[in-house]
Each structure stands twice: as structure tokens, then as C-alpha cells.
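Pasting as-is:
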Amino acid sequence: MTRLGRALRRLVQREDGNAPIELLFMSPLLLWGLFGTLVYFDAFRVEATSIKTGLTIADTLSRERALVNDTYIDSMYELQKFMNLHDKSPGLRVTVVRYHTKDDLTGFLDATPHYHVVWSEVRGTDRAPLTDQDMSSLVNDLPITNDGGRLIIVETWTTHAPALKALPVTTIPTFTFAAPRDVNVCFNNNPSNPLTDLC
């Protein structure tokens, strides 16, 4: 056995160690695990806050008996920014839709039930308001209701910048909905003219 082999064998058989050297070797792994865990759970915190924000806005709108207008939606957007302290310019889209099981023109039963957009408002994002054409892609994400049933859809987009600069900035989307409570949620910026109500 060579001299190097004997030295390696003695090193492997030794049970004593040098704590500072072992700590030096293990520190990168420990730090990576610690910071990775913090970043991972911080992303979950941001997502949970965004979901709670969407649910709060949807629940607030579901109880609204007065007309909704631009000022009302602006206040909901300010509420979103207050709840999402980490993102000062989140995105918000609020949409009220109506479910149809009959053909819009003939009134006969339609083979493909669908949603119709009653009104849609956007704040803080360049995304467009939802239209009837967009609903075909969302129909599987929404529950089936009775004919003429309404839903309030609240979508949010929150930017998450991880503490570790090596990770990319991501946008966390949320999608929540609620049914109005006994009333239609109507939109009108000119309440003196009931003909412009979007119900």
C-alpha cells in the first residue's frame, strides 16, 4: 500500500473532526436551504394575500345594493393596494356575468349553456375588460347556475419580487368568484339616468 493510501485510510478511520472546517464546508448548503425556504414561503404568503384580497372584494360587491360606479371600483382597487403592501401597483379586473341555458334570440333551450358579460372593469393593468367572446375559455372554471343566474368574478395580478435576486420576478394571478346576495350588482356612472344601468 502506498504512503498516500495509508494516509487516506487513517483519515477515514478517524472519528474526531474539526468543527470549524466542517462548518465551513456545510455553510453554503445550510444558507441555501434557509434562504430557499424563506423565499418559498414568502411566495405562498403573497399568493394567500392575493386570494384573500380577491375574496374580500367579491364578498363586498355581493352585498352591494346600491349602484356600482367608477369611484366604487377605484376604492376596491385602493383596498387591494392596501392589503398587498408588497406590490403598490397590482392588477384588478372585476366582472359580472349572467348564465344562460337558452338561446339569446329565440328563447329556446340552447345546446351549449354559456355566460354573458354584464359589465367588466379593469384597474392597474393593461389587460382588457372581459367580453362575451372571452367567456368560452372560462366556462369550465365557473359553476353551473340556474338560467339567468349571476356571478361576480374578481381577478387579481400581484408582482412578487423574491428576496434572492438570482430568482426572477413573477406575477401571481388569482381567480375568485361569488354570487350576488339577493340583488343584481348594477354598474352606472350616471345614476340619474336609469336607462344606462348595466344589470
